[in-house]
Specification:
By secondary structure, this protein is an alpha/beta fold. The chain is built from 9 helices and 10 strands. The two termini are 17 Å apart.
Length: 286
C-alpha cells in the first residue's frame, strides 16, 4: 500500500461527494489524498464547451476547487492534484494499482440497469487490482447511527483481502462490523411448504453459522477490540445483504480477480452497487 487514497474527478456533484468521503477516510487512516482528472481533448465531445485551452482551464479549475474544498474541512491533510492527459479507464486503473484505494462518484439509481454508475466506473470496477469505493451523494435527511461496517461473506469464495479491508475500515471508525452470509435453500428442500422446517431439521442453518464463525475467528483474534456481529440468513444473497446494510456507513463486497477470461463484478456486487445507500467498497481477491 502506498498510503495514498486517490479520487477520480469528472466535474460532477457525485465526484465531489467522493472527494468528501475520501478526505474523511484519509484523515482517519493518516493517508495522503490525491485528486486526479483524466482528460483527453476531443473536439466532438459535448461534455466540455470551448476550445482546447478553455477545456483545460475548466478541468484544472475542477481540481483546484476540489482541493480548496478539502482544505476548508481538513487544513492539515496532505492533498495533491494532477491533470492526467489520457483516457479515463486506463488512467484510473493505473491509479487504483498504485493507491491504497480508488474512490469514484456514483450517479445513483434509475431504471436503466447497467448504466447507473457509468460505463467508465463499470470498466474500472471489473478490472481494478486494488479496492475501488463508489460513493453517491449523501441523503441529508438520513439520521446519524452508530457506525457500522457491513461485509458480505461467502465462505470459500471471499479472500482474506476482503475481510482485511472490512476489519480495518471498522477499526478506523470505531465501528461495529456486521458480517453477513446468505444461503439459498437446496432445491430438494424447496418443494414443500415445510421446506424451512426441513432446512432447520437438516442442520443447514447451524452448519452455515459454524462455518461463518470459523472463517471470522482469526480476524476476531486480530481485532479483539471490535464488536463483530455474525449474521446468517437463508435467502437471496443480494437481498439479504441489502436488507442488512440500510444503516451502514460502508458496505464491503468482493470481486474475484480472474487471471484469464472476461472480468465481471458478479450479480451480488452488481445489485449492491445499484441499490445500496451506503458507499460500496469493491475489493478484488484471488
Amino acid at each position: 500500500m502506498s498510503g495514498t487514497i486517490t479520487v477520480g474527478l469528472d466535474g460532477t456533484d457525485h465526484a465531489l461527494a467522493a472527494v468528501d468521503w475520501a478526505a474523511d477516510e484519509a484523515k482517519r487512516r493518516g493517508s495522503d489524498l490525491r485528486l486526479v482528472h483524466a482528460w483527453v481533448w476531443r473536439p466532438t465531445d459535448t461534455v466540455y464547451v470551448g476550445d482546447r485551452a478553455a477545456e483545460e482551464r475548466w478541468v484544472r479549475n475542477v481540481l483546484d476547487e476540489a482541493q480548496a474544498r478539502v482544505a476548508r474541512k481538513h487544513p492539515t491533510l496532505d492533498v495533491t492534484t494532477e491533470l492526467l492527459v489520457d483516457d479515463p479507464v486506463p488512467t484510473l486503473l493505473t491509479e487504483a494499482a498504485r493507491s491504497e484505494m480508488l474512490v469514484l462518484g456514483s450517479r445513483g439509481y434509475g431504471t436503466l440497469t447497467g448504466y447507473l454508475i457509468g460505463s467508465v466506473s463499470l470498466h474500472v470496477l471489473r478490472q481494478a487490482t486494488g479496492p475501488v469505493v463508489m460513493v453517491r451523494e449523501p441523503n441529508p435527511t438520513t439520521p446519524k447511527q452508530t457506525p457500522e461496517v457491513v461485509v458480505g461473506v461467502e465462505p470459500g469464495q471471499v479472500g482474506d483481502s476482503v475481510l482485511e479491508f472490512a476489519f480495518t475500515a471498522a477499526a478506523e471508525r470505531g465501528a461495529t462490523l456486521r458480517a453477513v452470509h446468505a444461503s439459498s435453500i437446496p432445491t430438494v428442500l424447496a418443494w414443500s411448504p415445510g421446506s424451512m422446517y426441513l432446512a432447520e431439521a437438516n442442520g443447514l442453518e447451524q452448519i452455515n453459522r459454524e462455518v461463518l464463525a470459523d472463517l471470522l475467528k482469526p480476524w476476531r483474534e486480530k481485532y479483539p477490540q471490535l464488536k463483530v456481529i455474525e449474521h446468517f440468513e437463508i435467502g437471496s444473497a443480494s437481498d439479504v445483504l441489502l436488507n442488512n446494510s440500510g444503516q451502514a456507513n460502508l458496505l464491503v463486497v468482493g470481486r474475484r480477480n480472474h487471471q484469464s477470461g472476461p472480468r465481471r463484478i458478479g450479480p451480488v456486487t452488481h445489485a449492491v452497487l445499484h441499490h445500496a445507500t451506503a458507499p460500496v467498497a469493491v475489493v478484488p481477491h484471488d
